[in-house]
Write a sequence for this structure.
């Protein structure tokens, strides 16, 4: 494994609006995040779930910023619970 492989993770995030005829204009946002390397994925209903999925991958990295610092940045962009 080279340094880039141990210090980089890629994720694909897909977001869509789900609404039925009864919910016109009141649909819910849904999403799916996939870790490209492992193909692990999860579905989410709130953006705050994105950092929760990413965190374990960051913890496994050999080098890089602390998880706490990354978590603060992600929570800034995805405020929530």
């Amino acid at each position: 494994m080279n340094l880039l492989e141990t210090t980089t993770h890629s994720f694909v995030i897909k977001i869509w609006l789900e609404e039925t005829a009864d919910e016109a204009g009141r649909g819910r946002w849904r999403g799916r995040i996939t870790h490209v390397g492992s193909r692990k994925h999860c579905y989410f209903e709130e953006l705050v779930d994105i950092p929760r999925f990413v965190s374990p991958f960051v913890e496994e990295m050999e080098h890089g910023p602390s998880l706490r610092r990354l978590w603060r940045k992600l929570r800034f962009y995805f405020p929530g619970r």
Notes: DSSP finds three helices and three strands in the chain. The first strand starts at residue 11 and ends at 18.
